[in-house]
Write a structure and sequence with these properties.
There is one protein chain. A hairpin with a 5-residue loop joins strand 8 (163-164) and strand 9. This protein has 209 residues and is an alpha+beta fold. It is globular. It has helices at residues 63-69, 100-104, 119-126, 173-180, and strands spanning 11-12, 15-16, 21-22, 41-49, 74-78, 131-134, 159-161, 163-164, 170-171, 186-191. The strands form 3 sheets. Strands 3-7-6-5-4-10 form a 6-stranded mixed β-sheet. The protein has a two-stranded antiparallel sheet with strand order 1-2. The two termini are 14 Å apart. The chain is 13% helix and 18% strand. It is built from 4 helices and 10 strands, in the order ββββαβααββββαβ. The chain has one domain (20-192).
Length: 209
């Protein structure tokens, strides 16, 4: 789900637009491990990898890159305290340097005491880096048949978009990239688990205003 710069939900044909993403780790580790599940919380989003505006001798992904990330550019995310981002907070260069309490204060009051939203802050402080949104060129049976729902393949802790090539191919990254429009977009990503069964979340089940 996306919000525009006016804070309104992006819609398509009158319905809230969305692309499903999988947070599971192929190692089945919790968020506190380097290659564990995607931590819940707030992230800075800054453009694509590779940067399509930078000349490259060969812009086509190598076989290894295709298998790991799929055929589409990766969306670059930063943990709050991770180095390398242009600005986590508007008009403040570099990563977030505040305390945990100051990070919690960035959230609406009703969320500030919800402990899971501190995971991205804690994981970044522990040294987790290189979080991305990407697909995968691997066959859906690559991990011995273990996969997420609807053909999703888990990653090493990133947010995984569906990218399948067998049976009925399904590629969700192009839809997401089209909505973000361009290669120098910036914004924020909020990762929050919804209580309930271990199944994809339906927008109809969310308490949206």
């Amino acid at each position: 789900m996306l919000k525009d710069r006016q804070g309104q939900w992006v819609k398509e044909n009158g319905e809230i637009w969305s692309v499903p993403l999988l947070l599971q780790s192929v190692h089945r580790l919790p968020w506190s491990f380097t290659n564990g599940q995607t931590p819940q919380g707030l992230y800075r989003m800054e453009g694509l990898i590779p940067d399509p505006t930078r000349p490259q001798d060969n812009p086509i992904p190598t076989v290894a890159e295709f298998l790991a990330y799929g055929q589409y550019p990766l969306i670059q995310l930063f943990f709050p305290t991770e180095k390398g981002q242009r600005e986590f907070l508007p008009n403040q260069k570099g990563p977030f340097t505040g305390t945990l309490a100051q990070y919690q204060a960035l959230w609406p009051p009703s969320w500030q005491t919800h402990a899971p939203i501190t995971q991205s802050y804690g994981a970044g402080r522990q040294g987790r880096t290189l979080l991305r949104i990407h697909g995968s060129g691997l066959a859906t049976n690559h991990f011995g048949g273990w996969r997420g729902p609807q053909g999703w393949l888990p990653t090493l802790g990133c947010l995984a978009a569906r990218e399948t090539y067998e049976d009925s191919p399904q590629h969700d990254m192009p839809r997401l990239l089209q909505q973000l429009a361009g290669d120098r977009f910036t914004g924020y990503v909020v990762v929050v688990e919804v209580p309930g069964p271990d199944t994809p979340v339906a927008i109809a089940d969310l308490p949206l205003p």
